[in-house]
Amino acid sequence: MKLVVGLGNPGPKYDGTRHNIGFEVIDRLEESLNIPLDQSKFKGVYGFKRVGDEKLFLLKPLTYMNLSGESLVPLMNFYKIDKEDILVIYDDLDLPPGKIRLREKGSHGGHNGIRSIIAQLGTEEFKRIRVGIGRPVKGQAVPDYVLGKFHNDERVEVDGAVEKAVEAVETWTKSSFKNVMNQYN
């Protein structure tokens, strides 16, 4: 079994914001893989289906970003999904819009959603796809920036990054994560 988690904040107020890029990737995966998020439990919405010889789960935590681990870990424990089979998708200030970076482990880097997952899992060793959102302009507060919407000129690049992340997840259903990293990094 594999679990793909996209981080974001619930509600229409946050749709299209930089912090919700993980939700955007899950929404695209829901369409492309035909996995409806029709289950509501574990403080999130999720769905699953057999892809190849494994069950693939998609999860959008509804805990708000800073408590993401409170949704991921109960679902993981209930379905007995190994930590090695978790992939978390989230926004990254240190990457320019349109870039993605895949890693097998790492610190939270100041990202509170990842901080929550690390605290709940008890490890930094889980797969991730970081999607670049760029840095705020000088003088703009980070919370205002990440909760703001993309500018029109960024949107094209971000849509491309979302598509690359979707392709990377789809490739992971058929290949090792190391191969996926080599292909998409």
Automatic annotation (TrEMBL):
It catalyses: an N-acyl-L-alpha-aminoacyl-tRNA + H2O = an N-acyl-L-amino acid + a tRNA + H(+). Monomer. This is Peptidyl-tRNA hydrolase. InterPro entries: Pept_tRNA_hydro, Pept_tRNA_hydro_CS, Pept_tRNA_hydro_sf. It comes from the Bacteria. The active site is at H19. Its EC number is 3.1.1.29. Transmembrane segments: none annotated. The record marks D91 as: Stabilizes the basic form of H active site to accept a proton. PANTHER family: PEPTIDYL-TRNA HYDROLASE. Pfam families: Pept_tRNA_hydro. Signal peptide: none annotated. It comes from Evansella alkalicola. The record marks N9 as: Discriminates between blocked and unblocked aminoacyl-tRNA. It is found in: Cytoplasm. TRNA binds at Y14, Y64, N66, N112. NCBIfam families: pth. CDD domains: PTH (cd00462). Catalyzes the release of premature peptidyl moieties from peptidyl-tRNA molecules trapped in stalled 50S ribosomal subunits, and thus maintains levels of free tRNAs and 50S ribosomes. Belongs to the PTH family. HAMAP family: Pept_tRNA_hydro_bact. Keywords: Cytoplasm, Hydrolase, RNA-binding, tRNA-binding. Its main location: cytoplasm. GO terms for molecular function: peptidyl-tRNA hydrolase activity.
